[in-house]
Amino acid sequence: MMTREETTTAVLKDPQVLNESTELMNGSHAVIRALLAEGVDTIFGYPGGAIMPVYDAIYDYQDHVNHILVRHEQGAGHAAEGYARLSGKVGVCLVTSGPGATNLITAIADAIIDSTPMVCVVGQVAKHLLGTDAFQETDVIGVTMPITKWNFQITSADEVPEVMAKAFYVARAGRPGPVLIDITKNAQSEMMTKPFKYDFCHKLPGYHPRLVPKREHVEAAATLINGAKRPFLLFGHGVKLAGAEKELLELVEKTGIPCASTLLGLSSVPVNHPLYAGWLGMHGNYSTNRLTNECDVLIGIGLRFDDRVTGDVTRYAKQAKIVHIEIDPAEVDKVVKAHAPVVGDAKEALRMLTPLLNPNSHEEWHAKFKELDAEEEEAITIPELSANTEKIKMAEVVRMLSDKTKGEAVIVADVGQHQMVAARYYEFKRNNSFITSGGLGTMGYALPAAFGAKVGDPEREVVAIIGDGCFQMTIQELGTIAQSGLPVKAIILNNNYLGMVRQWQQLFFEKRYSFVELQNPDFITIARGFGVDGHTCDQRENLSDSLDKMLASDKPYLLEVIVEKEENVFPMVASGASVAEIRLR
Amino acid sequence: MTSYTICVFTENTFGLLNKITIIFTRRRINIESLTVSETERKGISRFTIVIKEESRETVEKVVRQIRKVVEVLAVFGYLNDEVVYNEIALFKIPTPEGAKRLDIETVNKTYKAWVVYWGLEYVVIEKTGTEEEIFDFFNYIKPHGILEFVRSGRVAVSKSSRSLVEYLPEEEKYDYLSYN
Ligand SMILES: Cc1ncc(C[n+]2csc(CCOP(=O)(O)OP(=O)(O)O)c2C)c(N)n1
Ligand SMILES: [Mg+2]
Asked: Could you tell me the residue ranges of all domains in chain A?
């Protein structure tokens, strides 16, 4: 007789059998079978009362799916996001009801605004207790309604296969996003009344994202672009999500159109590409922001014209005709009215569009960018990188890291000045190399997301760049990282301040520093306590060796760099200002 | 302010009313009336939502947001002249002894309203019509005193198949490509 584990192994080997079973199983086994059928190899989770039957089922499948025990459900959420962002697969979280679920909320909100595919399976009290204020009962469906792409409550085991298939379809399809499945305890433990059979979901009556755009819309866009004297192309996360980096380069190289990236688009075009003009938005480049208001055709691809990109939208690219290529119809005309909207997947759209475009070089137009770039170099970049200040500057750390990793590492930035500096000074040479919380600006994102990213692609060097404030929001995930042993590298850029808020207080609130100075712990001692090695660097002459030491480690490693306390990130489009009013100081 | 009628066709599942109304709440759009019923097709519900809005653009945006709800099959936004619409109102009017008699003939002939219940001390009058017609009748009947008054909210069907914002899927034309 085979042991239970051997049976599972035998069953799992045969994909036909995997998706179908003659035996009756309980809802929990069905949940795991559904995950396996969807190709899930990793679950980020945390157990508790209302999800115990599923945890009991996982016990049987430990050889087939890697469950990672986090230290806080928010960590599970961000880890799943980091995993999804780097691997392109759906991130999966498993948590208990009530506080387990509410701890996940921040990550779900983060995932929806940054279009990150995620399936969260959340325990719930038994069906007969719903609505009775039972122990750890929270109306998670109600709470997550506005922050999920779809949510659903399963109350009987038989529903599991169909609902799980739908969950994965919705999470991935079109513009990706988080899906939450609330599963009552009885549905987890009761037996299904029919054999498990998993049919993948490919479409739904009410949800069919348009991937291939309408030809006439693409043609209208092509006409506008071909007629442009000073076209400017902006790309966002949508390009990466569509895997359209190659198609984007083809368009740009054929037409000679300068292109610039949103925060989440970074690394989709290598920074040393001659047609790459830079980064957009509040702390983006001088030329890209200024010239947004001088181009005659603005082509936005896979982005949503976030207010951090547009500045004062009433003074944003008013002179330009707008082409907007976007998969989510609700984003078209939402912020910026498009003269030529193209609804569809970026890859499909670019494949159709590029052949219709005329070759060009736009030399004079490029020269304008170069001129402004030189001003920025002079005013900001050079001084930042060749500082002789007493303390190290954030920019130096990031640029040195960039050089040492040849611009090929995956950078996971947290939220604040260090994030902006990471985006500015890391010279991305490889696609899909920048992960950060863009839309929600979630402090505490980076450590768990970097861990998740490393799990998602262990071959790549993953380096988190984290502020001293942010680090303390999810510091406990050092435990998760230590337990995994994965060589996740983290750099704390420690300025002893909630630096970004301090910068605003300095610039816009008459330097009234209101609750932004931190009394920090000894980060290295804490890391060691968790079993993560690390050291502090506070001298410029030690920086290079410090980075080498961190990068050479084959274990998790924390490098704390003491940086200048009161440096400001520039350029900056002050809030309420127009992109044309970007300041260099 | 312009009245818009938004018709939403959905799968009939739990919580959809919430999923739709929070879209208005978040954008601070006040719902004037809302009715839900099953359509001629089983399992498909129809929401009729009336809002008053200055800007057509706002309405178009909200329509597109509603369209994003996975269970929503189609959404249409209409101007008043693009729909045939009505409401029902019930008026509970006291009929104490010695009071001015109700002029049933005027109620019936002029206002096309009908007494649907005769109580000992009151009658219930049903009036079907547009919001304006109901309001007219309200003013007419008011001097009698109104014990209770309730309106159903608008139900509407479009006059043509064309609508203000149209996102009805043309099934065959969509390609289902996989994520990668
Ligand atoms: C959860 C959360 N709380 C508050 C904020 C507001 N906020 C944005 S940046 C920032 C300061 C971050 O400080 P630190 O991590 O030290 O980074 P620095 O700006 O100093 O590089 C704060 C408080 C936020 N984005 N997220
Ligand atoms: Mg700081």
From this structure: 4-189, 215-364, 390-562
* Nearest Cα residue in chain B from A154: B14
Q: Which CATH class is domain A390-562?
A: alpha beta
Is residue A8 predicted with pLDDT exceeding 60? no
Alpha-carbon distance of A334 to A324, in angstroms, equals 11
For residue A136, indicate whether it is catalytic. yes
The pTM score is 0.94
Active site residue A240: no
Residues A556-583 have a mean pLDDT of 97
pLDDT of residue A3: 52
Q: Tell me the pLDDT tens digit for each residue of A332-345.
A: 999 999 999 999 99
Burial code (b: 16+ CB inside 10 Å, e: under 16) for B32-49 equals ebbebeeeeeeebbbbbb
Rounded to an integer, the average pLDDT of A247-276 is: 98
Tell me, yes or no, whether B44 and B130 share the same domain. no
A489-494 β-sheet, strand order: A434-436, A410-413, A462-467, A489-494, A557-562, A533-537
Question: Mutate which of B70, B171, B174, B175 to test chain A, going by most A C-beta atoms within 10 A?
Answer: B70
Alpha-carbon gap, residue A580 to A319, rounded angstroms: 12
- Give CA–CA dist B164/B180, Å, rounded: 35
Single-letter residue type at A515: F
* Mean pLDDT (chain A, rounded): 96
Q: Give the span between the Cα atoms of A204 and A214, in whole angstroms.
A: 21
> Tokens 């500096």 correspond to what residue?
A421
Residue with tokens 């480049």: A285
Please provide the DSSP assignment of B16-67 as one string: HHHHHHHHHHHTT--EEEEEEEE-SSTTEEEEEEEEEES-HHHHHHHHHHHH
Residue B79 domain flag: yes
Rg (CA), chain B: 20
Q: What is the pLDDT of residues A484-538, one digit of tens each?
A: 999 999 999 999 999 999 999 999 999 999 999 999 999 999 999 999 999 999 9
Residue A224 has φ and ψ, to the nearest 5°, of -60, -45
Buried b (16+ CB within 10 A) or exposed e, A163-176: bbbbbbbbbbbbbb
User: What's B34's domain CATH number?
Assistant: 3.30.70.260
Distance separating alpha carbons of residues B147 and B164, to the nearest angstrom:
40
A569 lines ligand 1 (CB under 6 A): no
By C-alpha distance, which of A253, A239, A205 is closest to A344? A239
Shortest-distance Cα residue to atom 9 of ligand 1: A416
pLDDT band at residue A16, thresholds of 50, 70 and 90?
low
Question: pLDDT digit string (tens) for A404-423?
Answer: 999 999 999 999 999 999 99
Q: Which residues of chain B have pLDDT under 50?
A: 163-180
Cβ of A142 and B18 within 8 Å? Answer: yes
Domain at A4-189, CATH homologous superfamily: Thiamin diphosphate (ThDP)-binding fold, Pyr/PP domains (3.40.50.970)
Average pLDDT over residues A95-118: 98
Please give the Cα distance from A514 to A499 (Å, whole number): 12
